[in-house]
Amino acid sequence: MLIKEQYLMLHSRFSNGKESGVPIEVTLEDLSEALYCTVRNAKLILRKLVDEGWVDWLPGRGRGNYSRITFQEEKEDFLLNLAIELAQDGDYRHAFEKIGSYSSGTQAKERFLDWLNGHFGYKKEEGAEGSPATDNLIFPVLYPPRTLDPATASFAFDSHLQRQIFDRLLTYDERLCRIVPGVAHHWSHNEAATEWTFYLRKGIRFHHGQEMTSADVLFSLNRLRRNTENEWLLRGVERIDALGPRVVRIRLRKPNRIFDRFMCSVGVSILPADFAGQEEENFWNLPLGSGPFRVVSFSKHRVELAAHSHYYQGRPYLDGVDIVIMPADCNPESVGFTSVLHMMDRYRQEDRGGAVPDLRQGCTMLCWNVKREGPQQSEAFRRAAKMILHPGEMIAELGGPRILPAFGFRPCESRGRVIDPIRPERVKAALKESCYEGRPVRLAVYDKYKDDAAWIRKRLSEWGIRVEIENHKNWKEADCTLSSIVLAEDEVCEIETYENGINGLRLYLDEERMNWIKSRIDDALEAESGEARRMTFREIEEYLRDEASVIFLHHRQLDAFLHPFVRGMSLNPLGWVDFKDIWLEKHD
């Protein structure tokens, strides 16, 4: 591959837009400078290029006579073929790097992305002689997973991958709307819901072959309790005991009648005890779980998964999943490969006969940092901003996946709600009451929310409110942030919104507000009925909405990405497909 890149280096430096086959005057010193090597090594490289038939070389004779190099391969085709070759070998990182380095002045990038459009999706690959064919799924995403550690999971894509790699004591079946056994085949609790006992299945194997026991469960849960982002999942836990190799008892300080729902969350995934004898840092390079897929490779450029042959619920049909992280500058709308992003061919609303699109269980919202000094300390200022940032107008102007104005976290609570139109006199009165003096508001956002952020800045500026948009890495010091929540586990994920150590609400709300919220959550967990819990969660939501600590903006469309041969395809609440459920109907 190096010699091919050296051809591109010379072509980019000396061709000056000339067609192939046209001699160009150069010196060996020029070549060595372009190749960052000595003249002697430049001669060796030149000889290889001539042997390959890619260049012709006519050395200059006598003092002052230049040598002539003739490039025989068109740069665009040569670069495209190199990128395709790298991608077919699974080296997407270097394929994108070569395209980024040498595609200037060509259509190679657009042609490569067009090739990727056909490359991604279902692939049946013939095995070596005597070996069966394999079924693989290859698809791109725009952002790499931030972590594979369930204890620190807070993003939907991360959580989705962790569900493929690890198992939990219990599972919530979205189709049946009930909890079903996971690695625990049975569980029970006392009348007060303060003592829960879980009975593990026999024969569950981690990816390295070790059988799971109660020691692994204790290790995983106790690790979670040690100041991790997801320690809230074990809120109120007093102690965890192994009553035998396959029995675990958990005692709580206070009743929690949905503790079994907590045990369905990805954060309480089971790891092998003591990281299977590895150093923790090394373990997360290729983590071991007991889920339907094992990790083959993991980097910021690519994630490879392979089927876990001894998965207790049955081996997945897919042999492998290859997730390619696209470069940051690959804007799907501008380069025309929207159809390959996230999964495969997009299943759009118009393909469903005009049916109402499914919506993500969750919403996009603006959260105010009321612990930080600034205009957002004034409730009147927050109310004014809430009136100005009308969700219906945001959706009408920006469109895209923004479908329904949000009244709260859940689409079902927002449907049928009418959000009052902007009343200028009320906005003026609220701004006057707030005594706003023009201090800029710092809004921290991820790149994917840049359109929303620009709209917010424009709208607020029309009322004299200055907004400075910053990178999300500064969000802890910002005055507000834009974020989306996904309620994958109903009530439990709503609690996570308030209690996860990395979520904006927990870090933005002051101690008084958080203590009140936690006390209401305690009340909800003691409640006998789901409706009683729902009423308590509505009370918390109404409190945040009424004082405008949170401005609910919109609910987004839940996109499915399908391929005509794919079967078993349905979206989980995180908006992804469970890979273990996919099978491929193709007979050739």
Automatic annotation (TrEMBL):
<dbReference type="Pfam" id="PF00496">
    <property type="entry name" value="SBP_bac_5"/>
</dbReference>
<dbReference type="GO" id="GO:0015833">
    <property type="term" value="P:peptide transport"/>
</dbReference>
<dbReference type="InterPro" id="IPR025370">
    <property type="entry name" value="SgrR_HTH_N"/>
</dbReference>
<dbReference type="Pfam" id="PF12793">
    <property type="entry name" value="SgrR_N"/>
</dbReference>
<dbReference type="GO" id="GO:1904680">
    <property type="term" value="F:peptide transmembrane transporter activity"/>
</dbReference>
<dbReference type="InterPro" id="IPR000914">
    <property type="entry name" value="SBP_5_dom"/>
</dbReference>
<protein>
    <submittedName>
        <fullName>Peptide-binding protein</fullName>
    </submittedName>
</protein>
<keyword id="KW-0238">DNA-binding</keyword>
<feature type="domain" description="Solute-binding protein family 5">
    <location>
        <begin position="179"/>
        <end position="475"/>
    </location>
</feature>
<dbReference type="InterPro" id="IPR039424">
    <property type="entry name" value="SBP_5"/>
</dbReference>
<feature type="domain" description="Transcriptional regulator SgrR N-terminal HTH">
    <location>
        <begin position="4"/>
        <end position="101"/>
    </location>
</feature>
<dbReference type="GO" id="GO:0003677">
    <property type="term" value="F:DNA binding"/>
</dbReference>
